[in-house]
Amino acid sequence: MVRAVKAKRSGRILFAVFVLALVMGPGPGIWLVNPDPGDPEARRFLFGVPIVYAWAVFWLAVQGVCIVLAFAGGGRGESAGEGGDS
Amino acid sequence: MKFVLFGETAPGPDFGSVALVVLGLYLAALLTLGIVAWRRGRTSEEDYYLAGRGQGVLVSIMTIMATFFSSGAMLGVPGFVYKEGVAFTLFALNLPCAGAVIHLFGSKIRRLGRSRGYVTQGDMIAGYYGDTAPMRLLVALIGFLYVLPYVIMQIKSGGYLAQVMFPGNPDAFARGAMILSGVTIVYVLIGGMRSVAWTDVLQGFLLIGGMILAAVATVVTLGGLGGFFAKVREIDPEGLALPGPSGVYTPWKLMTICVFASIGSLVQPAQWMRMYSARNEQVLKRGALIFSIILPLCFLFGVMLVALAGRAIYPPEMMDGKMVAHPHVGEFDQIVIVMVKEQLPVMLGGLGTVLVAVLLVAVLAASMSTADSNLHALSAVVTRDVYDRFVRPRASETERAWVGRAVIVLATLLALWLVRAGQTNENFAPLKMIASLMFAAIGFSCQLLPVTIDMLYLRRGTRAGAVAGMAAGIVAVFLFTPFPDLLIEKFGEAGKTPVADAVNPLKSLFDIGFTGFVVNAAVFALVSVFTQKLDRDRVAALAKEMDGGVQ
Question: Where in chain B are the domains?
Answer without folding.
Answer: 15-390
